[in-house]
Amino acid sequence: MDSLLIEMRAIDKAFAGVKACEDCRFDLRPGEVHALVGENGAGKSTLMKILAGVYHKDAGQILLRGQEVEINSPHAAQMLGVTMIHQELNLMPHLTIAQNIFIGREPRQPIPFMLDEAKLNQQAEALLSTLHLSLNPKQRVGGLTVARQQMVEIAKALSYNSQVLVMDEPTAALTEAEIEELFHMIRRLREQGIGIVYISHRMEEIRRISDRVTVMRDGHYVDTLLTPETTIDRVISLMVGRTIYESKPELPETPPEDVVLEVRNLNRGRELRDVSFHLKRGEILGFAGLMGAGRTEVARAIVAADPCDSIEVRVRGKVVAIRSPKDAVKHGIGYLSEDRKRYGLIVGMDVANNVGMASLTRFLTPFGTIDDKRISEKASAHIQSLSIKTPSVRQRVRNLSGGNQQKVVIAKWLTADTDILIFDEPTRGIDVGAKSEIYKLLNELARQGKSIIMISSELPEILRMSHRIIVMCEGRITGELTSAEATQEKIMQFATQRTELVETAKAGS
Ligand SMILES: Nc1ncnc2c1ncn2[C@@H]1O[C@H](COP(=O)(O)OP(=O)(O)OP(=O)(O)O)[C@@H](O)[C@H]1O
Ligand SMILES: [Mg+2]
């Protein structure tokens, strides 16, 4: 018999006015990877948070191996062997790996109830080695890469004997190599009979790793397909409820020659070395490179979000001193951070206020007070044009789905009316339909004469969108390509052009 690990039936969940899930179903077999897909705001995270005890369902049933269960808290879920690894990881950065895994269940010495550190570390070590993870249990979690933190979360889940693992966009912040490692781990877990729910917007990953795919749309269940028997196009058309035509990349018009931004001699310790480049009016300049190449660091140095040892910035030929991101806005430079929660948005505020945040001076009434009505109007217009899914401009950003939060960041900078825009991973976590809308928007901005730097780890996106491409590796610019000459291979060559040889030579001298 085809036994089911999990079966969710007729699940309803509403948040003040928003039906996030309506009559949704989902099931999971032991030893399978079941992908869950849908546009931003379709209800994927909500459905899985119900399974993981984070949210209470309004109606419906959850069966675990055929037995109905009530899952009232994440702890209850854990005890039943259901663990969710969230988009935002949940570890305590100041604790060690071992402490994080066994938090609340630390082995104690009989007298006087002291923590048994040695035993704790031994247990962690044993667990990590069964997972083939070479991590030091005594290391603090805060110093680990996102990929490693994820592995620690998986280890923690398995220490509870979890049979069901839900991963919500696990690869959003991973490098190619780290994704391979994760896939390796997923395959091993699958062999052990663990069921895995895999939420992602990356169709290629879903094709590679999943056994089945369930599609959600607007809070509803649409269909479940066997991965080997379907195509990416089919899945996408079910997601969006229409066929989207990925129009051939229409090469952007060549921009005029005037240089609007020039950066020279940007240096910071060993992280950034001798970075110099220019950006033209109406140009989309792609910044390619592997994770950690220094692209975000360059952007943050330009807008003075981080200090640097030396930098010269010219805006339209004039040297400018930028001392803070606010200064940068005054000089017409906006930076859309890759980390929207930390730098881009105030999630406790509503959509309208976030949209108006970077440009409050433009919304003053004659009496010097802030014109809330005009901000709301502006925000409403962007909600329309970017199709941001929210019940109103007064909704708190915290309550929007991940991808819709990203769109709010974009709306904020469009409102600020800066004419040099630095987009850092603008489409991370954004669904396929919205992605092509964002591409259209970037093209349109460039046509209007705005200048854009686009940092992206997705090569097809860089190739499709950029007039010119700068490639970085280990804090240096290692290559520049025009859109006509650029190929994935050429970019990868520059992106992996390491400088180890130079370093060894220096060290030897
Ligand atoms: N705590 C909450 N309060 C109010 N509304 C919420 C809350 N959590 C989610 N929603 C709403 O429920 C809907 C579904 O959101 P959910 O986060 O499940 O989407 P998702 O499919 O995971 O999208 P994404 O791909 O963007 O992460 C959205 O309209 C969202 O705004
Ligand atoms: Mg989500």
What CATH first level of the largest domain would be assigned?
Answer: Alpha Beta
What form results from the Cα inertia axes?
globular
| Major sheet characteristics | 6 strands, mixed
The unique ligands bound to this protein are: adenosine-5'-triphosphate, magnesium ion
Please tally the β strands and state the result: 20
* Arrangement of strands in the largest sheet: 6-7-8-3-9-10
Unreliable stretches, pLDDT < 50, 5 or more residues?
A: 243-251, 499-509
- Rg from alpha-carbon coordinates: 24 Å
CATH homologous superfamily descriptor of the largest domain: P-loop containing nucleotide triphosphate hydrolases
Please tell me the CATH architecture of the largest domain by its name.
3-Layer(aba) Sandwich
Percent in helix? 25-40%
How many domains make up the coordinates?
Answer: 3
Average pLDDT:
87
The helix count comes to 18
Tell me the fraction of residues in β-strands, as a range: 15-25%
Distance between the termini: 70 Å
Q: Which structural category fits the helices and strands? A: alpha/beta
- CATH fold field value of the largest domain: Rossmann fold
